[in-house]
Amino acid sequence: MMHIYAFGSVCRGEVDNGSDVDLLACVDEAAPELDHCKYSIYRYPRLRALWAEGNPFAWHLHLEARLIFSGDGSDFLREMGPPQPYVAVESDYAKFQDLFMQSWNELERGANSATFNLSCMFLALRNFATCHSLAQGQPIFSRRSPLLVAPPLPMSVEDFSTLMRARLLSTRGHGDRLTFEDIRAVLKAAAVVPPWMNTLRSLHERV
Fold first, then answer.
1. Residue 199 has pLDDT above 70, yes or no
2. Which residue, 58, 80, 102, sits at the end of a domain?
3. Which listed residue, of 20, 119, 123, 192, carries a Cα 20 to 30 Å from 174's Cα?
4. Which of 80, 111, 130 is a domain's end point?
5. Taking the CA atoms of the chain, what radius of gyration do you get in angstroms?
6. In a shared domain, residues 76 and 112
7. Name one Pfam family in it (predicted).
8. SS3 breakdown of the chain: % helix, strand, coil, rounded to 5?
């Protein structure tokens, strides 16, 4: 048995040079014929567990995934209904704030893997904002979620775009290499992030 879904930026109408279509394969047993570089492969029990814990990825799939193949004519994700409420936001706040700080510190120390550290900083920012939006009941899964939550990340579009470019370079090898000036600008701009993260955390505590 197998179901295949599309999700990702194209499915929510974010069409640009960095747009992608992610593919989810739901399987009931090992599927060696599927390319792990092209598919996110999950067994049905694992997806049910993600639904039961209200995992952000489950909510992402519930809200944005589109069925493109069904082995039995059913829509597995839709038939599960909505995931349970998301309750792990505090631990996720801490996890992604730590990831940002560690990556920023590595970058400041002049680590050779600047693109990788910038990529991790972007991942931390995006996931932090997405988890916050989900906890607030207004989920935003966009790559630009840090700029779309309230209050938005007080970073220039140019510096945020550098972080996005680093993510694409690190994960897909797509785009122009970052210059020293790009990296230096983001190093300086990153100072706004910890206070912004603390503000979002305090807003959640008041809910």
1. yes
2. 80
3. 192
4. 80
5. 18
6. no
7. NTP_transf_2
8. 55, 10, 35
Per-residue model confidence as pLDDT tens digits over 114-155: 999 999 999 999 999 999 999 999 999 999 999 999 999 999
Of 105, 101, 123, 125, which is closest to residue 114 (Cα–Cα)?
105
Q: Could you tell me if 111 and 28 lie in one domain?
A: no
What distance in Å separates the CA atoms of residue 56 and residue 147, rounded to the nearest whole number?
Answer: 19
User: Contact, 140 vs 133, CB < 8 A?
Assistant: yes
The reply to whether 135 and 167 lie within a common domain is yes
- Dihedral class, residue 169 (left if φ above 0, else alpha if ψ from -120 to 50, else beta): alpha
Query: Is the per-residue pLDDT at 54 higher than 90?
Result: yes
Strand order in the sheet with 66-70: 39-43, 22-27, 2-7, 66-70
CATH code where residue 201 lies: 1.20.120
Boundaries of domain holding 39: 2-80
Q: Model confidence at 19, in pLDDT bands (50, 70, 90)? A: low
Residues 139/133, Cβ–Cβ less than 8 Å: yes
